[in-house]
Amino acid sequence: MTTVAGDDPSRDHRGHGSRLVIGVTGHRDIAVDDERLRTTVVRELERLQRAAPDRRAVVLSCLAEGADRLVARLAIDHLDAELVAVLPMPPREYRRDFRSAASRRDFDALLEAASRRVTVDDLDVRVEESHEGQRARRYALAGAWLVERSNVLVAIWDGKPARGVGGTAQIVRWMISGTIPRRYSPRALGDGPPSSPAPGRVLHIDPGTYQVAYLGGAPD
Q: Cys staple from 23: which of 121, 146, 154, 175, with CB 3.0 to 4.6 Å?
């Protein structure tokens, strides 16, 4: 299924009820089969759900390798979460970013499991830059889209500064501050209803130390 860019993932397909919207960002090169990391992620996802027992979880993920897919799968398996795929580019082009045939099959399976999807090409935003700059801006726009719609952002991240546009540290900073530069904000550029910027909550999990920190407030 395809969602129009302005759809509100916090509400069901009839526009009723409230959802717990969990965005995902993080490194691609994490060990997704690390049992201690997986246990930590599941524990904290379940903690978020317990703090909002009447709200079905919806996970917003760009489905990149690593953190994006790990959190998406664990949220589906342990919270019965709905998956919304937020793609920086059309699937055929996006697959070129994945390293192996197995990774591309994994992406396809998750994309098929998604109840809704949105790509940057669906947004009313013109991306006119060099090829390299264009791809970076697409990642930034996709990250901004999920930041603007998430109740909490799960960041599997080493805590180091951003190494480029659209990186994990940048997405975390946008969520914590509630401020996204206009050129990267789909809502500021005309997609979806305008909203007043507000600081958001980040669940930070360090994949090397397994330490957990809530930035912007822990769940009750």
A: 146
10 within some domain:
no
Provide the domain count of the chain.
1
Query: Tell me: the pLDDT tens digits for 140-172?
Result: 999 999 999 999 999 999 999 877 777 899 999
CATH number for 26: 3.40.50.450
Rounded Cα gap, residues 24 and 47, in angstroms: 16
88 CB contacts (<8 Å, ≥6 apart)?
62, 94, 119, 120, 135, 138, 139, 141, 142, 166
Q: What is the pTM of this model?
A: 0.86
104 contacts: CB under 8 Å, gap ≥ 6: 95, 98
Asked whether residue 13 is domain-assigned, the answer is no
Q: Which of 197, 193, 196, 202 is nearest to 170 (CA)?
A: 202
